[in-house]
Specification:
The complex is a heterotetramer. Chain C is mainly alpha-helical. Helices cover 73% and strands 0% of the residues of chain C. Chain C folds into 2 domains: 59 residues; 35 residues. The longest helix of chain C has 27 residues. Chain D contains 9 helices and no strands. The model of chain D has no long low-confidence stretch (mean pLDDT 87). The chains are: A mainly alpha, B alpha+beta, C mainly alpha, D mainly alpha.
């Protein structure tokens, strides 16, 4: 570690020359064989039971990783069907109802079984306890339970797919879903209910962990921003998910007993469903994107060797999004017959909630300023995130402004917008995080070349997939159309072609990441020379994360201070110091 | 099922004043957003190239700058609020029709999977709406089953039709032409079949269309509810179709497209087929006999055809175009527009 | 939402952990619990009395007032909110606050929708 | 007092204090989700309560307020007993704790028993939307109507509406200021009644299961480490919440309509078999 510390300062060079070689720490202190003997969370227990009954947050994280990846594959296949069908104006491969079931499957699976659980389930489970210096989640058994609850909910989705699918769209609007759809609304509703319960449990666990399990010295001001983001996300999950649950319950009651809670012909009100549904489902998009933003903070700072620009602003913007994000759901209903006055309130709050996201984007960009940037896969993904999320964000403004929303509502413009935020934002953040922490999770390093290539392919493929859809949407092409007027064909063909490229991109990591498990070279404890607590332990981490209770003296992102001690002594930086490379000799836990 | 409409470039046609106003806001937001994104991307590119890792050049330690953060909090906020204000004013226009529009209220009923439309003058259409140019009209809609959405991109207009309630919008078309009508709210299997056409006609064409003598779409039948539509029913009721039909061996001259044409009559002269001519040929056929036909046409007296009915019949005859004349066996067909359903309309479900 | 909370932890979890004493359970003499129960029972009787009266419009309002008081007493004494720390208060209040937000916005629309729509 | 709390510290906690406060916090956060879960139902209910107030009051009039009143006190008492249990426990009296747990369980079961009886009576009165069939009385009414006007013979009969009419015009409502109602909206009220009380009952059952489990643990000496009382404490928080939910269900569902003490008493007698059927 001393070698890390001195990098960059020891030799003042006359002519600095560009150096794109990855910033790898020198070869790990331990030879592979030694590392294998060293007990870690993967090898200290054997056998199937030690996995299915584990309460270790790291193993549960891996279980989530495998499961959500499988469901991502399902969702992607459904997306492929949808895009392929849209090559022809009259529908290339699917019947009308098949198409409806395909896009519904795509929506429900991607939302409830991938986007919502992926980062809280995998990275949140794996990293939050390590980042706050704890041995495990606050409620390990609850953690395991929430995984199995989620799996049970997922089974209901799979079941309803196998027995004929669902054709209501993921929004389940009554009276179509309650009265006119002959597909498996009840199974899907049950699935939504149960998976929601799981995400509540995870959220409780994370919040309790952040509040109660922080190691000595880990103040709120020293929490990694990923933890802040996960905290805000969990708050949303706890406060919003129950409302969706009860909404779905009432939908089921209406469907079973044929009583009009939402059915206007017997006194009910379909708009009420939309209100209660969006009370969850709009905050849900922040459940999906906030963890991604958290990941970006970690990756950007590490690969630009910089402090985050404006720690407080970024942290509180997460909380701000979490709170204000609850009060904007009505912008999904400007044209649904919602009251005009309330619509104005929602429109105003929508514009306000856009501000924290803007702050984040600018702060990220500013973080790069004056850095020493290298472009490994996680960094390329992170930059891709900023590029795509910016587009996703600004196009949201068109939809948030009541006037233009009239024309763009329910067109492909909306589709493109939320794919730019959800996929371009969340998926790229997820890939960045996965590539960033993969060495920590597995102890193996993946192929630098292939990972960079995959990042570029995904970026290009994604951008080209959804840019044409903005145009098609502005031309007026409605969403959820298996057939469409011929003049829209050109945009759809472009979009589909790029979608295939994107698909290739998303498939690549599966190969080189799994390959790295067998052929990858040992990553070492801290391949990216990052400062987070999770990097101070061995990789893969030991069964209880740290060998001794870590003690934190410094803020999270002290990349630019190779020798923290000096600054600590002259006290010039009011106690904000790296808990990582700098103070290895001050009792902070580190694996080596 | 979809006729490709002539749409030029990347922009949907602007067929109403509101479309222009809506696009102005759209362009405004676009300009601001492109500018903002340009700033972000510029900084991003600059940093990525200028601060790529250089041997021996450490990174600076910058913790942040409240001034800058205030800057890029307040500036976007100002623009966002401008979007909000302009957007609300635009929305105001969209939901508040001018007073004259209330006199011309068209009603729309959405149903899986068709639009049933009725004109203030009583004419009914399915999946088609003919509108007069430069006239503010109000559209009030509801649904028979699920939630639909009556969307006309060319007017930048869209509103959900909700079962159990009335919602509405208004247009003032200012450009003749044929535009798309979409159902924008997912409504089940036939969602993408629930589409149609908006025809914006000149005032006189619209009037002609109303009484059935002017038709844009192919198909033999006058618009439902128009005089010609009544006339057509009488045409069958009074057995005219027995002789005047499209069969080859028909015993009477074809009536297709004869209005305002010269007709050769016995005695070597010709006569212009005016309304009077048509009227006489029915009330008193022996007045003028068409050259080359036997005088077998019976006279229809007031007791058989009232004056009103006669007007309708004549209006129908005037509306006949080549190929429109029905065959004897034909019965009263479905109203105009219904055939656009049969393309892929699924069985059951509605 | 948890601003004040941040301050409580500003000096660090480590210090916090040692400074923070166990949430005391000074053994409330059963008398206290019984008194609480008595009050709650009286309130329940009051609720029934109102329910059996003919207040018309105001019946539900009065009843909800009583129920709210009951709930507060229950939370305060039986659920030991009285001696709970800031964080617990924050959690409890946030639930009330968000429920309030939901009611505020949804009911605003449900009850005023007919206005302003053409 | 804090000093004499003893117990094993789970592997991932640093000290007992951390463990106990964490458990309490977890349960409180779970209660937040419960509040919003019921809150959503209450919100929907309120919207319709305001729109269809007279119909909802009519529906409420047909409910069995007698059982509800008694149940209120059962639940209150159970809240008391579990509190006393915890107090006793922390005062170092595990035996009392066991007894109080048992008392709580018994009270809860009694509540559920009465609730079941109430559902049964509703079923007998044919007050289950779209499920119930014509009760004999309602059949009589329908027959009379048809006899009076044979033209009505072929019009559709909605069993719920007929049964409701019979119940609402029962002599127990004589002299009540009664409002006109739309039976279909009353069905809506009953849907809320069944789903909200049903959810409440579900919570009761879960709570009783946990209580029983803890009672068994208590008997098997799990709570010899008195630090583990925190689990009962968390459990009691949940139990109190269930009580709290009922405090709002009572006025919103049962007391909304016109009722009288005498009628409530009558209904309760019927329920426990001290008096003949309501009709």
């Amino acid at each position: 570690m001393t070698t890390e510390i001195s990098i960059g300062t020891d030799t003042p060079m006359a002519i600095p020359k560009l150096d794109y070689t990855p910033q790898m720490s020198p070869e790990p202190e331990l030879t592979p064989t030694e590392q294998r003997e060293k007990p870690n969370y993967l090898n200290w227990q054997y056998g199937l039971l030690s996995w299915v009954l584990t309460v270790d947050h790291k193993r549960i994280g891996l279980m989530y990783l495998v499961s959500v990846s499988i469901f991502f594959m399902f969702g992607a296949i459904a997306a492929g069907l949808v895009r392929t069908n849209l090559i022809m104006p009259t529908g290339a491969i699917l019947e009308l109802d098949q198409y409806n079931k395909a896009f519904t499957a795509h929506g429900t699976i991607m939302l409830f079984l991938f986007l919502i659980p992926v980062i809280p389930g995998v990275l949140g489970n794996f990293l939050v306890p390590m980042m706050v210096g704890a041995k495990d989640m606050a409620f390990p058994k609850l953690n395991l339970m929430s995984y199995y609850v989620w799996a049970a909910g997922a089974l209901f989705f799979v079941w309803q797919l196998t027995v004929g699918g669902l054709d209501t769209g993921w929004t389940l609007y009554p009276p179509y879903s309650s009265k006119y759809s002959h597909t498996n609304v009840l199974y899907a509703g049950l699935g939504i209910f149960i998976t929601g319960f799981s995400s509540i449990l995870t959220a409780i666990n994370i919040i309790a962990t952040v509040h109660k399990m922080r190691c000595p010295g880990m103040t709120w001001g020293r929490l990694p921003l990923f933890v802040w983001a996960m905290y805000a996300t969990s708050v949303i999950q706890i406060l919003a998910t129950p409302v969706l649950a009860v909404t779905v319950v009432m939908l089921a009651v209406e469907k079973i007993f044929g009583v009009g809670i939402y059915d206007p012909t017997i006194g009910g009100d379909p708009i009420l469903f939309q209100h209660m549904f969006w009370f969850y489902s709009h905050p849900a998009v922040y459940i999906m994107i906030l963890p991604g933003m958290g990941v970006i903070n970690e990756v950007l700072t590490c690969f630009s060797r910089k402090n985050i620009f404006g720690y407080k602003a970024v942290a509180w913007s997460s909380v701000g999004i979490a709170v204000v994000g609850f009060l904007v759901w009505g912008h999904h209903m400007f044209l649904a017959g919602q009251g005009y006055f309330l619509g104005q309130v929602f429109a105003l709050l929508t514009m306000l909630v856009a501000v924290p996201s803007a702050i984040k984007v600018f702060n990220w960009t500013a973080t790069l300023y004056g850095g020493s940037i290298t472009f490994q896969a996680p960094m390329i993904f992170a930059i891709g995130f900023i590029i795509l999320f910016t587009i996703g964000g600004v196009t949201g403004l068109f939809l948030g402004s009541m006037g233009t929303d009239i024309h763009l509502h329910d067109t492909y413009f909306v589709i493109a917008h939320f794919h730019y935020t959800m996929v371009g934002g969340m998926m790229f953040a997820w890939q960045a995080g996965l590539h960033f922490w993969w060495p920590k999770m597995t102890g193996k390093m993946y192929s630098d070349f292939w990972s960079r290539l995959a990042a570029v392919v995904m970026l290009v493929g994604f951008a080209l997939t959804f840019l044409p859809q903005f145009v098609a949407g502005y031309m007026g092409m409605p969403r959820r159309y298996p057939n469409y007027p011929p003049e829209f064909q050109i945009y759809n063909v472009l979009s589909t072609a790029a979608a295939y490229l994107q698909g290739i991109g998303f498939a690549m990591p599966a190969f080189y990441l799994i390959g790295s498990l067998f052929f990858g070279k040992p990553a070492g404890n801290n391949p990216f020379r990052a400062t987070g607590l999770e990097w101070q332990t061995s990789s893969p981490p030991g069964p209880h994360n740290f060998e001794s209770l870590p003690q934190v003296y410094f803020g999270p992102y002290e990349y630019s201070v190779p020798d923290g001690l000096k600054i600590l002594n002259d006290g010039s930086t009011n106690g904000v110091h790296s808990n990582g490379s700098a103070n290895t000799d001050k009792g902070a836990a580190h694996g080596s | 099922m979809f006729a490709s409409l002539d749409t030029s470039g990347f922009l949907p046609p602007q067929a109403s004043e509101f479309a222009v106003q809506s696009d102005m806001l759209f362009y405004y937001i676009t300009a601001v957003c492109i500018l903002g994104s340009a700033v972000v991307y510029g900084l991003l590119a600059y940093c990525c190239f200028m601060f790529a890792r250089k041997e021996g050049v450490p990174s600076k330690r910058i913790l942040g700058s409240t001034k800058l953060e205030f800057l890029w909090t307040s500036i976007p906020l100002v623009f966002f609020l401008s979007f909000f204000v302009w957007g609300v004013r635009l929305y105001d226009i969209a939901i508040n029709p001018p007073p004259e529009a209330h006199e011309r209220e068209y009603t729309v009923v959405g149903k899986q999977w068709m639009w049933k439309i009725q004109h203030p003058t009583g004419q009914r259409e399915i999946n088609e709406l003919h509108l007069p140019i430069d006239t503010a009209v109000k559209i009030t809609g509801t649904s028979e089953d699920v939630i639909h959405d009556f969307g006309v991109p060319a007017f930048r207009s869209k509103f959900d039709v909700v079962p159990g309630r009335y919602t509405s919008a208004w247009y003032k078309p200012n450009k003749e032409g044929t535009y798309h009508l979409f159902c924008d709210q997912y409504c089940g299997q036939g969602h993408s079949q629930m589409v149609g056409k908006i025809h914006v006609l000149s005032q006189e064409n619209y009037q002609a269309w109303l009484d059935g003598s002017y038709r844009i779409r192919e198909g033999k039948n006058p618009v439902d509810g128009s005089p010609s539509w009544e006339g057509r029913k009488l045409f069958f009721k009074l057995q005219c179709v027995n002789c005047h039909n499209k069969e080859s061996e028909s015993r009477a001259p074809s009536l297709e497209a004869i209005y305002k044409t010269k007709r050769a009559i016995q005695g070597g002269t010709t006569i212009m087929a005016t309304d009077d001519y048509l009227r006489n040929s029915i009330r008193n056929p022996m007045l003028h006999i068409r050259d080359g036909w036997k005088p077998i046409m019976p006279a229809y007296t007031r007791s058989q055809v009232t004056e009103e009915e006669l007007l309708n019949v004549i209006s129908y005859i005037k509306s006949l175009r080549p190929g429109d004349l029905p065959s004897r066996t034909e019965s009263t067909p479905a109203p105009v527009g219904a055939k656009t359903q049969d393309t892929q309309a699924p069985a059951g479900g509605n | 939402m948890d601003h004040d909370h941040t301050h409580t932890h500003a000096h660090g979890a480590g210090a916090e952990m040692h400074s923070q004493e166990l949430v005391e359970h000074e053994v409330a003499p059963n008398a206290k619990s019984l008194t609480t129960f008595a009050v709650l029972a009286v309130l329940a009787l009051l609720a029934l009395f109102i329910g059996f009266s003919n207040l018309g419009e105001w019946k539900v309002v009065a009843n909800l007032l009583v129920a709210t008081v009951q709930a507060c007493i229950l939370a305060f004494f039986f659920m030991d909110l009285r001696q709970a720390d800031k964080l617990t208060w924050l959690i409890a209040l946030s639930s009330v606050f968000w429920t309030f937000l939901m009611f505020l916005f949804i009911l605003t629309d449900q009850l005023t929708r007919h206005l302003g729509v053409l | 007092m804090a000093a004499n709390l003893k117990g094993p510290v789970a592997h991932h906690f640093n000290n007992l204090n951390q463990q106990l406060t964490t458990v309490r916090m977890g349960m409180w956060m779970f209660l937040v989700t419960e509040v919003l879960f019921f809150g959503g139902a209450f919100c929907a209910y309120t919207a319709y309560r305001v729109w269809f107030s007279s119909d909802f009051e009519a529906g409420s009039a047909a409910l069995n307020v007698g059982i509800a009143s008694v149940n209120t006190f059962l639940l209150l008492t159970s809240s008391l007993t579990i509190t006393l249990g915890i107090r006793a426990a922390y005062a170092g009296n595990p035996k009392k704790l066991r007894n109080y747990l048992l008392a709580t369980i018994i009270l809860g079961v009694a509540f559920l028993g009465l609730k079941g009886r109430e559902y049964q009576l509703d079923y007998q009165e044919g007050l289950i939307p779209n499920v119930s069939v014509l009760t004999p009385e309602a059949q009589k009414v329908v027959n009379e109507r048809i006899a009076k006007d044979p033209g009505k013979a072929d019009e559709k009969v909605y069993p719920f509406n007929e049964n409701l009419a019979v119940v609402l015009h029962h002599e127990k409502f004589k002299g009540e200021p009664f409002v006109a109602y739309d039976p279909f909206r009353v069905q809506l009220f009953f849907m809320f009644y069944y789903s909200m009380t049903g959810l409440h009952v579900l919570h009761m059952i879960i709570g009783l299961g946990l209580l029983t489990w803890q009672y068994i643990l208590a008997c098997r000496g799990f709570f010899d480490y008195n630090a583990r009382y925190v689990y009962i404490e968390a459990m009691s928080l949940y139990w109190h919440f269930v009580d709290m939910a009922w405090m709002f269900l009572l006025p919103l569902l049962y007391l909304a309509g016109p009722h009288s003490a005498s009628q409530a008493l009558e209904q309760f007698k019927v329920a426990i078999g001290l008096a003949g059927g309501t009709h």
